[in-house]
Specification:
341 residues; 9 strands; disordered N terminus; 2 domains; alpha/beta
Length: 341
């Protein structure tokens, strides 16, 4: 299947494979309708179904999911009693009817033409998984600051899928993903012991089996970031803990980008303690420990001042968001999992 030119007719529906969109859902009453609407509004030429794998939510997510399914025969709901993302994905894939699996999050919104272009890319590249840009966008000043951190190299913007300017090509991992079902089954699906970082771990196994993972900036998904400082801190702390687990399982994957936050946390803690002891004892060498926290503050300040244009209220949040992101991620990495799966 090739990309049609501007004047080329759209291939008949029979020429397009059926796709199953699997959405793991937990506590998503705020964003679920928008996520599903963007899927159904894709105008995909072939058959399309949406499988909502709903966990034990504390809000109206179950009610909303049931109402969506009652209103459209293309939507089905499956239960995810474990409440974990990899369990939801495996349950949704098991229930799916089609051979192409599109992963979408309950707080993500596909851009126009996403599914059709992803299906074309699967055919053009021969990849087992294709994905694109995690386009973080916030509505409140705090969320806008978090979105900026996702795309900033001083924040989380080191991965290809965080940057729209990244070139297309084979990748270590991609955001979400559109998969060939047979490739997923061949590697055993998502690892349910990986409560986080399961996408990265799955793509690692796909590549290890000789399959190709393909990134394209043509594919964009609007991502809605956490809306409070507490929620962001928890997200980053948990992410750091699970990234430590990835490195424990696959030591060869450790790199500077992953190790920078824990090193920064350790340096700040040791430097701050040394400077305090130095101030009490008068030892100059220990006083020099203040270089670490002061140096880090300089990096945060510089990153905040040189960030992309944004409203003043969002920029005011930016230093706080950067510090919480770095230090919680790094602390989680240093602490690691309490109970290894």
């Amino acid at each position: 299947m090739t990309t049609a030119g501007p004047s080329a007719p759209t291939p008949p529906a029979a020429a397009w494979p059926g796709v199953s969109v699997v959405i793991p859902v937990l506590n998503e009453e705020r964003h679920l309708r928008a996520a599903v609407d963007r899927v159904l509004g894709q105008d995909y030429p072939g058959e399309l179904e949406v499988v909502l794998a709903v966990g034990p939510s504390r809000d109206r997510t179950h009610e909303i999911a049931a109402a969506l399914a009652a209103g459209d025969p293309r939507i089905r709901v499956v239960d995810n009693p474990a409440g974990r993302t990899p369990h939801a994905l495996n349950a949704g894939i098991a229930a799916a009817r089609h051979d192409i699996i599109v992963r979408v999050d309950g707080h993500g919104e596909l851009t126009d033409g996403y599914i059709a272009r992803a299906v074309e890319l699967l055919e053009e590249t021969g990849a087992a998984n294709v994905g694109g840009v995690m386009d973080a966008q916030g509505t409140t000043p705090f969320e806008q600051a978090v979105a900026s951190v996702y795309t900033s190299r001083v924040g989380l913007g080191g991965s290809r899928f965080h940057l729209a300017s990244s070139p297309a090509g084979e990748a270590e991992t991609v955001f979400l993903g559109v998969f060939r079902r047979e490739a997923l089954q061949a590697v055993g699906g998502f690892d349910e012991s990986m409560h986080r970082a399961q996408d990265w771990e799955l793509n690692y196994r796909l590549r290890g089996s000789g399959q190709r993972v393909w990134f394209s900036p043509e594919l964009r998904v609007t991502y809605r970031p956490r809306s409070s400082l507490g929620a962001l801190a928890k997200q980053m702390y948990d992410t750091g803990k699970w990234r430590r687990e990835v490195v424990r399982r696959h030591p060869e994957t450790a790199n500077v980008r992953y190790l920078a936050p824990p090193v920064a946390v350790a340096a700040i803690a040791v430097g701050s303690l040394a400077s305090v002891v130095g101030a009490v004892t008068g030892r100059r060498l220990l006083k020099a420990g203040c270089v670490a926290p002061l140096g880090y503050l300089a990096v945060v300040t510089g990153g905040s001042l040189t960030a992309e244009r944004m409203p003043a209220a969002a920029r005011a949040w930016l230093p706080v968001v950067l510090v919480v992101t770095h230090l919680c991620w790094g602390a989680g990495f240093l602490v690691g999992l309490d109970d290894r799966p």
